[in-house]
Write a structure and sequence with these properties.
heterodimer, A: about 625 residues, alpha/beta, 12 helices, about 20% helix, globular, B: about 475 residues, five-stranded mixed sheet, four-stranded mixed sheet, 13 helices, 11 strands, elongated, disordered N terminus, disordered C terminus
């Protein structure tokens, strides 16, 4: 056992929020250590020659090592759980910068109605609009509280986009539904693809308001206030699930982590796996225990403050694993709130259009050269006569498409139609090559498949949605009673499935997607008009949220608005685990803004009077 | 180019490279496999019972000092890109017959000719053979701890696969095996070699342990006809494995046993197993023999715990089969040949294209009910189809996509360094396909090669595949 010298702050994970806190606290003279289970990687040399879809998209080289620690899943409390044995539904990252290294970099602010999700819906539609068992709740802060942090983050990172609402003035070409922003984006939006341009024209004709994707990828070279100088995107087509070789894709590893290291007060211990937060007799945290994965040796890192800065699911598991006499059910869980309000997102492609004799070059670019509409997101449309709450963005035209991940599931359209659509549901446990996040599960083969690939691979455009998933009583995270990680600690169990609200919302949105595909002039449309139940093998975004949610009282939440754990005030949580539920947008911008707010509060107020709850 | 911040742990910045280079570490894998065989009778028995080979990943003992060292390679790693593409002339994992069968069937899934290349011309079988040679075919991080899933036999939908000895997807030991007294149960030793079982006729009782040792020079296994499954997994020369006769085995019956390696049965690897009432312990609680597989006296973890899942839900849980990708091919190819023999009295690879297509169509549509108790025809088809796509469309470095014929088929330019916006703002491209080996390196320095004179992205690089001679 190695016991290290005590530091002011230890962060569990060296991802993006750890970098933000390391930079803010390090600049103020505090000593921070980040314990990271993965390796250190930077663009140079690690990403310089990486245009290998097999390694990144199929073998998932940059992701968390789930051979040693994975998650289990069951659809509801009445069914048994099984481990997620290979990647599917979501893709957490491993190593310096965490998932921000391999993300897509779609960058959103949430809407005011998102922050008041429960009260807003009740005010507008009445109490009965919220069905029994749906446990959505308001955030303990408003958009206005976060705007200054959103604004600073935009400029610190060089976010690219077209403003749609500048201090209340609606600007054509931007997102008219966004909340007012104090300044325009620091960089212009990325050019949109030819497919996205078709979507833009079609949605405009339909009376909607298309706009380009706001992005954490530089559209021009940028020198940031943090001190990094980075190049613009080269649109190479190898982006999501890859590290960026020119650092145009913004990540923790090319912004805040280098800034934190430059303070001289931020120290990273890679290949080190935290096994628990240690607590003293007063119930406060005393530091963390971890295993050096290279030597197998156990270490203790004492600290005044412990910050869970890992992925949503890792943070929740860490709280639950950290049991002691004072916290018999884990830190933050004295009132049984840890694991509640676990939500996710509905990311699907309901309609795929075939455009005969077109070649859209979808293998170029990245995931942000698309166009979207927000007309059916959040509460931007009247739900009075609808059987659901919430919504989704609708989009088309993203690039970076590889034949490895798109040929197996290529839609069967036109003359070939009868060749597909065979129910091949297996009744035996699926083999490894049979189901996958990217493989699709089509049945086409032989000459017909070959001709479909030859003629149509780059002639199909999907119209997709990314939408809300509400919180429910029977949807939560806890420790699995059966399965453990390679060190014998229980895995985190996900109990989650779609409810009526999700099925109904999907059905409504699928029709909108079909309308758009039609307006785009598709020769034929492959439509999935109803959603199948949730499965863990299809990729549906890495936007897992909740489980250690923030609130205005310990009765309804695990932390206050700073991520400070109610029952252990020297433990903080960062990231999307804090979200009471998931809005219909990517979570990253908001968790960065929250980390800025927490960092400022730690520096300005917490350390003046430690171990007290902040108000 | 890209500044690398100073870090107090500079020595660790090269760690990823180190891990990457140590990834495909065959010595480690072999060492672990052997150790598992030696140490863990239970693991061996479990593997035998599941008809698969022993995979130690996920069965690691946290107290095991070797595992605790956490060396790269001790844990499962992601398959790395080979430095040299695998040779089409040397098989790494498949037997020649298996390779010919895979080549034949993937050529039906994506047919071709010299003028219009398909799976055969692309070298898909070379891709698959190399893939299966790494980590039993597990190319990505995979969690392999039990208990494993068994689909509910109560569901009528599952009935076509149900046999008395094995419910669909189940471990063949349908009921949990508990530690019994050990009294009465015996171990029957069988030797396998080219091409015999010794003895070729033997008696066993429920609860007895059948231990087979491969004394030959090539791999052998043992299947029991009445159970319609492999009871001893494919053994390397010198290896042994055990199988516990199920408690509910039909006393008084007898069954033919044989080696499933194609051709071996015909060459004489066939015998008779009589299930007698003599010997054996309490029929209700059979157990592994104390000396099964290397003298592990307790044989404790003969725990065949399973998690029973409704048949209609199982697909939602994703990959849950105990079979490794290598097992899938071994079992699938044998079953494919059995089916072809039944229908056409010829092995699959010897059939004409029309009959092969009939079989592939039946596999795809789930019309073959008696394929194999452990693997459905549809599942095998989905594996083949997926790996055909991987072999067609991955970088040629992995052995398939020879001459980039897969990319040419769909119109994909492969590993380009960069594109200009105008290229995705318009339709179509005249970029020619390029592999990673052809793509110039981005940063000069250690990785620099003779023709890496360009450090900035070059677009429209189709005029020369190798070499941009001007310095920027």
């Amino acid at each position: 056992m190695v016991v290290h010298k005590k530091v002011d702050v230890v962060t569990i994970g060296a991802g993006w929020t750890s970098g933000i806190l390391g930079w803010k606290l390090g600049s103020a003279g505090h000593k921070i250590v980040a314990i990271e289970s993965g390796p250190i990687r930077y663009a140079n040399p690690n990403f310089e020659h990486n245009h290998d879809p097999l390694q990144h998209e199929i073998h998932k080289a940059l992701m968390y090592d789930i051979s040693r620690e994975t998650w289990t899943w069951r659809p509801n409390p009445k069914k048994p759980s099984l481990p997620i044995r290979q990647y599917g539904s979501f893709h957490p990252g491993r190593g310096l910068g965490g998932a921000s290294v391999h993300w897509t970099a779609q960058f959103w602010r949430f809407l005011q109605a998102d922050f008041k999700h429960r009260s807003h819906n009740i005010d507008r539609y009445g109490k009965d609009k919220i069905p029994e068992g749906m446990t959505i709740q308001d955030w303990p802060l408003d958009y206005a509280d976060l705007e200054p942090f959103y604004d600073t983050v935009d400029y610190d990172l060089g976010i690219a986009g077209q403003a749609g609402n500048l201090n209340g003035e609606i600007i054509k070409g931007g997102n008219p539904f966004e909340e007012p922003r104090a300044r325009p984006y620091p960089l212009p939006a990325h050019p949109i693809s030819v497919g996205a341009e078709m979507f833009r024209q079609a949605t405009e004709e339909l009376g909607y308001s298309p706009f380009p994707q706001p992005a954490g990828i530089l559209s021009h070279a940028y020198e940031s206030p943090l001190g990094d100088k980075r190049a613009a995107c080269i649109y190479c087509g190898f982006c999501t699930r890859y590290g960026c070789e020119v650092d145009a894709k913004t990540s923790g590893a090319n912004t805040h982590i280098p800034a934190a290291l430059r303070t001289g007060n931020y120290d990273i211990r890679p290949n080190s796996k935290v096994t628990g937060i240690t607590t003293g007799t007063d119930g406060l945290a005393t530091g963390v225990s971890y295993i050096d994965l290279e030597t197998g040796e156990t270490h203790e890192q004492p600290a005044d403050v412990v910050i869970c800065s890992g992925y949503t699911l890792s943070n929740v598991r860490m709280l639950l694993l950290s049991r002691s006499n004072r916290h018999p059910d884990g830190i933050g869980n004295d009132r049984g709130r840890v694991g509640k309000n676990y939500t996710y997102q509905i990311t699907k492609t309901p309609a795929t259009g075939l455009f005969k004799n077109h070649r859209f070059n979808q293998f170029m670019g990245n995931g942000v050269i698309q166009s979207l509409i927000y007309d059916f997101n959040g509460d931007n449309f009247d739900h009075s006569d609808l059987d659901f709450i919430g919504g989704a963005s609708i989009f088309a035209g993203a690039g970076q498409r590889s034949p490895l991940t798109s040929t197996l599931g290529l839609a069967t359209l036109g003359a070939d139609k009868q060749a597909g659509d065979i129910d091949n549901t297996t009744k035996m446990p699926a083999t490894a090559g049979e189901v996958d996040s990217v493989s699709g599960n089509g049945n086409q083969w032989g000459k017909e498949w070959k001709e479909n690939l030859r003629n149509n691979w780059d002639s199909m455009l999907g119209v997709g949605i990314q939408g809300e998933w509400q919180a429910y009583e029977d949807q939560f995270l806890d420790l699995d009673p059966t399965y453990t990680d390679a060190w014998g600690q229980p895995l985190l169990r996900l109990t989650v499935d779609f409810h009526d609200n999700e099925y109904n919302m999907y059905k409504f949105l699928a029709k909108k997607c079909e309308d758009v595909a039609q307006a785009m002039g598709a020769d034929d449309i492959d439509l999935t008009d109803e959603m199948d139940p949730y499965d863990v093998h299809s990729y549906q975004s890495t936007h897992c949220t909740g489980g250690a949610i923030m609130g205005d009282t310990p009765d309804n939440s695990v932390t206050n608005s700073y991520g400070q754990v109610w029952d252990t005030p020297n433990v903080f949580v960062t990231g999307a685990a804090l979200y009471p539920q998931n809005p219909g947008a990517n979570p990253t911008a908001t968790l960065l803004a929250l980390a800025y707010r927490t960092g400022d509060t730690l520096v300005d107020r917490y350390f003046q009077d430690p171990n007290r709850l902040l108000d | 180019m890209t500044r690398q911040p100073d870090t107090p742990h500079d020595e660790n910045t090269s760690d990823e490279q180190k891990v990457a280079h140590e990834k495909p570490h065959p010595e480690h894998s072999r060492k672990l496999d052997r150790r598992a065989f030696i140490q863990s009778g239970s693991a061996t028995a479990a593997a035998a019972a599941m008809g698969g080979s022993v995979i130690v990943y996920g069965q690691v003992d946290p107290a095991d000092p070797v595992i605790q060292r956490g060396e790269a390679g001790e844990f499962m790693t992601v398959r790395d890109r080979p430095e040299q593409p695998p040779s089409p002339d040397h098989l790494q994992s498949l037997t020649p017959h298996e390779a010919e069968t895979v080549d034949a069937i993937t050529s039906r899934i994506l047919p071709g000719s010299a003028e219009d290349p398909g799976a055969h011309e692309a070298g898909v079988v070379t891709y698959i053979d190399a893939m299966l040679a790494f980590n039993q075919g597990y190319a990505e991080f995979t969690y392999l701890q039990g208990p494993w899933a068994q689909t509910s036999a109560s569901s009528p939908a599952a009935s076509p696969m149900t046999t008395p000895a094995a419910t669909p997807g189940a471990t063949p030991m349908a009921s949990p095996v508990t530690n019994g007294s050990g009294s009465g149960a015996t171990t029957i030793e069988i030797e396998a070699g080219e091409y015999y079982f010794k003895p070729s006729t033997f008696n066993v009782a429920p609860g007895d342990t059948l231990k087979m040792t491969n004394a030959g020079k090539i791999q052998h296994d043992m299947a029991a006809e009445s159970l319609d499954k492999t009871i001893i997994p494919l053994l390397d020369p010198g290896a042994s494995a055990s199988y516990t006769i199920p408690a509910d085995a039909d006393v008084g019956s007898s069954t033919t046993v044989y080696c499933t390696v194609p051709g071996h049965r015909e060459l004489g690897m066939v015998g008779t197993m009589n299930i007698t009432g003599a010997g054996g312990g309490d029929e209700a609680s059979p157990q592994a023999s104390p000396d099964a597989a290397g003298g592990s006296a307790a044989a404790p973890a003969a725990s065949y715990d399973v998690v029973v899942i409704d048949s209609e839900d199982i697909e939602r849980y994703g990959y849950q089969s105990r079979l490794s990708p290598r097992d899938v091919y071994r079992i699938g190819i044998a079953a494919l040949d059995r089916h072809a023999m039944q229908q056409y009295e010829q092995r699959f690879k010897d059939l004409d294209a029309k009959d092969q297509d009939t079989i592939v169509g039946d596999m795809a549509e789930g019309n073959i009910d008696d394929f194999d108790p452990e693997l459905t025809a549809q599942s095998f088809f989905q594996n083949l189809r997926r790996h055909t796509a991987e072999g067609m469309f991955s970088d040629p470095a992995y052995g398939g996509n020879r001459d980039m014929v897969g990319w040419k088929l769909v119109g994909y330019p492969g590993a380009q360094r960069a594109y200009m916006p105008i290229e995705f703002q318009t339709e179509g491209t005249d970029r020619q396909p390029q592999s990673m080996a052809d793509m110039h390196h981005f940063n000069p320095g250690e990785n620099r090669r003779d023709h890496d004179n360009v450090i900035l992205p070059v677009s429209g690089s189709e005029e020369e595949e190798h070499g941009h001679d001007t310095e920027p």
